[in-house]
Amino acid sequence: MRTHFEIEPIRRLWRLAFPLIIANISTPILGLADAAIAGHLEYAFYLAAVTVGAELLVAFFGVFSFLRMGTTGMVAQAVGADDNSLSFSILLHMITLATVIGIALFVLGSHAITPILALAQVPAEMHRPLEEYLETRLWGGPANLALLVLTGWFIGRGHTQVALYLAISINLLNVCLNYTLAIGFQMNSFGIALGTVISEYVGLTIACTILALDLKNTKRLIKQNWQLPLIIRLIKVNLPLMIRTIALHSVFVTLSIFAATLGTVEAASIGLILVLLTTAAYALDGFAYAAEIEAGQSLGERHFNRFIDSLKGGAILSGISAVTLISIFTIFKLQIFSALTDFNAVIEQASGLMVWFSGLVLVLCWSYWLDGIFIGLTKTVDMCLTMCFSVGVGWLGGLWAFGPTSLDSLMGAFLMFSTIRTLSLAFRLPGVVEEVRLRSDQNHLRS
């Protein structure tokens, strides 16, 4: 009979999740630092170019986040099965895919920026800085996407501290370079973009160095050949993830558009709530990543007991963390909003939406955790179908039922989408658990 039945899974998940939580939180801090640097340049349009350009690229590159998620799930399963050769083959194939996509985005994106900005009727003084910022950042596309793959590979192997060191070193270098180039060398928004690109390639170099040292210590000979069955599997795993990501982004884009039609104060208020929600999501994603590792390695190891224990631990930690975040943001909401804006009307409006924010975090914390489980098990078709169902029934149905005529109706539709997103994944969970049980070693089944 095992001791510490309930505590050990929680401790194990916490050890995996904590470095990832710190790494994730450093990302929005970088965005705030860039905005602060741009805000001290000579003209306001540099700030607009950096903030708008960064948001566009987050949405643009975010479509390819499947490179990180798919890599983590498949590598975790290979690690659980003690198959180093497969683990490296997955990395080789995904790095190649990321490089090809990154180069294609640079070539196509460089030609598309000018007509897109013209179509969007960007103000004349902002046009050139924004165009320059986007063109420069596209140079970092191959490094950006390759880092997604390498980060996913390290996480899948359970090396979460490596992911932390990478994130912290890249973001610290990024801030230093951006400040030096933009203000010290007076390169303005172009300097911020250039500093980001340089830090991405330096980060890629660091990641490759860590990878080389890791492989040097691998005793088993690793084959570097192309495998058609693996390529087919990669497509099956990653294509649904890409479709799912596009569907998810469509919700946030349309939410922002509908909020903008209500007025400037309303759009800014929704923006502040989304900033808080994004920050909470970055923190809670640490547990989702830990769930990816545990689920994938448990499946590869065919260890059902470990999988069940990780489910219980993840559920407990996600719930506790969600309540903690809600409490912190609710208690300090005025201080947080006042630090982000000086407009009292926006602060008052956003404060009134905190009830919606609390409901969203309580619902979505389980969704992030379930996402991690399904990614670790590479059940990406389920993720895609449930997301498309949630967008169609939850988001579009919510807009039809409540109408996009007020902030409360928009938040109600968004909460409806989030609830259906969580429930649809939860509905599939028992079937997934049964599949893991059937594929597990009988020696690892609890009587």
Provide tags for this entry:
single chain, 447 residues, mainly alpha, 2 domains, 16 helices, disordered N terminus
Protein architecture, described:
The chain is an all-alpha fold and 447 residues long. The chain has 2 domains: 7-226, no CATH class; 240-447, no CATH class. Helices cover 86% and strands 0% of the residues. It has 16 helices and no strands. The protein has helices spanning 7-38, 44-62, 66-80, 84-120, 124-138, 141-156, 160-184, 188-216, 228-262, 264-301, 304-331, 333-340, 344-352, 354-376, 380-402, 407-438. It starts with 6 loop residues before the first helix and ends in a 9-residue tail after the last helix. Mean pLDDT is 88; it is low at 1-5.
Question: What secondary-structure arrangement, pairings included, does this model have?
Answer:
Layout: H1 7-38, H2 44-62, H3 66-80, H4 84-120, H5 124-138, H6 141-156, H7 160-184, H8 188-216, H9 228-262, H10 264-301, H11 304-331, H12 333-340, H13 344-352, H14 354-376, H15 380-402, H16 407-438
